[in-house]
Structure formats: structure tokens, C-alpha cells
Design brief:
Number of strands: 12
Strand order of the largest sheet: 2-1-5-4-3
Number of domains: 2
CATH architecture of the largest domain: 2-Layer Sandwich
Strand content: 15-25%
Shape: rod-shaped
Largest sheet: 5 strands, antiparallel
Radius of gyration: 43 Å
CATH class of the largest domain: Alpha Beta
Length: 387
Amino acid sequence: MFRFLFSKNLFFAFIAVVFAVMIAGLYFQFHRVIDKTNLEINKIELNRAKALSEKITTHIKTYKTEDFSQIFKNANLRKKLSNFLSLYITKEFKYIYIIYKDEKNEYRYLLDGSSGKDRGEFGQRFFPLLGKTWKQSFQSKHFVYGIQEKADGLWVTFLQPIEFEGLTKLVLVLDISTKEYDNLKRFLMPLYSFLRFFISVLSIIILLIIIQMYMFYKERKRSTIDTLTRLYNRNYLKEISGSINLSKIAIIMLDIDHFKSVNDNYGHDVGDIVLSSIAKKIVNETRLEDRVIRYGGEEFLILLRWRRNRKEVMRIAERIRKNISKENLRVDNDLSLQITISIGVNTDPDECESLEKAIKRADKMLYLAKNSGRNRVEYSSSYSDAC
């Protein structure tokens, strides 16, 4: 019985976890869509940068600058090439410049298409933020890129090595602005905000449903559970009576012998202790699928599910009787009581027209056990005892 009630609580916990997982899944799935869209836009921007870098590199080499030292020597050529770079500066490509490394391996500006205070002068020291990416660019023959921290409106820095005589001597740099990233954010953030609002509302609704379910179950449990023994009561029996298949159960009725004298001699508090103790012992002798019901006063009803054969049912009933009567029930340090029970068994409830009549048949056997000396088990013979 107690295990059954515990499983109900686990059910509500399981429902809550399932809904929580569903909501979390929806939330993270949307994050995944955002990340995937972000990567696709990133890929598009890199393809554009690659196409532009190839165009710029090809143009530079049309000046027959295979010996890149010519660019260092000719100020007019540097100016012309810087102006050429400036033609491709847009809202998308915020900065375009070329960097070289001096004898001390320090990065310096060679060309810069920027204007005004943003322009890097020839030979001016350059301090990159993406140190590892820059180091890789001078060691690689293929483009590399690094993601900025959105500082100064920059998103991606694209680095295209420029080779002379098979060696990377210069690196063409295209700083991609956050324009497309901001466009993505402007498009997705309202959806993201709506999703968060939707998930919040859905979470509240689900929480309220779970609370209502729990309160309903709690109220139902209060009306169907005996407060003293924590067993089912007759209200529960009424609820399930219509769904019970009499061919798949056996019925045991038991009654505590001389219980009235316990209340009269020791008081109702001791009587309550006896009832609770007997209830626990009965539960321990039955299975999870069986139902133990406090039928009234000191009388208990057991519905054995998945009916066993008659001998097994009698063996269960006899085991319950022996385990209760074999040792005194200790109430406190000064009081222990010898408790016995009488049991009536209906091994063939399907011979009766209804559950109510089947229970009455077991009750007749209980009455016979009490009249035959108590502390015994009596069962109905097939067709010999009318329902």
C-alpha cells in the first residue's frame, strides 16, 4: 500500500520532468537554429571575403611586384595600392590592409585602405588581437580567420597570405563588420524574445496543471485513504468496484479478535496502535498489486489480484494469521498484547453476481471462524455457500 502511494508521487514527478525536458528541448532547439543560421551567414561572409581577397591579390601582382621589396621602395606605388584597397571598403568590409613582419618579427603596416585617423601609416607598428590566428596566417598558404568579440563593430577578421617566391611575406587583412550579424540579430531576437515569453507562459500553465493534478490526487487520496492505518477505505472500494474482474481475484476478510476488550481495558490510544500495527503486518504479507482495505472498525478486506489457486490463497491467509499471532505486540515498555485474528476467505468470487455479494460471502466465512473459536481461517466451498 505504502509502496503504491509512493509510486503515485513518482508519477507526478515523472510528468513534471517530462514537461521540463520538453520545454528545455524546445529552448535549446531554437538556440541550435540561431547558431546554425549564424554559421551559415559566417560561411557566406567568408566566401565573399575569399573572393575579394583573390581579386585584390591578383591586382597587386599585375604590378609585377613579385619582389615585394618594390612596394617598400616606391611611395607612389604604396599610395596607389592603398587607394585601390580603399575602393572595396564598405559597411560590410570595414578595414582592408596589408601587414608584413620586420626583422624582429614585429607586425607593421605596409598598405591601408582606411582613411583619416583609422589609417595605418607605412611602417607603423600593428598590435593584433588574435595573436594565434596571425601567427598561423604567416605559416600557412591558405586563408585563416578569427572571430572578434564584436569590439569596434568587428565580427570576423579574414587573413589571406600573399606569397612571394613560395614564401608568405605579406598578409592581406579584411575586417568584416557586424553589419550582417546585427541584421541576423534584428531578425532573430524578436523571435527569440517571443520564444522566451512563450516558454515562460507555457511553463506557468504546465506548472498550474501539475499543481491542479497534484491537488486533485491529494484530495482524492484524502477521501480514499484511512488516516489511521494509511490503508484504503470503503470510499476507494466503491470507486474500483465497477472495474474489478471477479474471476481474477480472491477475497480475504479478517477481524481482530476481542478488539473491543482492548479498547475497554487499555483505551482507544492503545487500540489505535494495535490497528496500525496489524495494518502494517498485513501489507508486508501481500504483494504490490494486491489491495488492502480497512473495511470498518477492526475489520480488514484483502483483494488478492491475479487469483491464485485455492491452496495458495489459503496458504496466504494462514500465513497472515500465524505471523500476527506468533508473537506479542509490544505497545510500550510496560505493555505487550497477544493479538489474534479470525479470517474468512472467498476463493471463488466469480460465483457471485457482484463484488458486494462476494464480500458478503467472505464475511460469512469470517463469522463462521469467530463462532468456531476465533484465531482460525474458514473458506467457502465451491457452490456450497450461497452468495
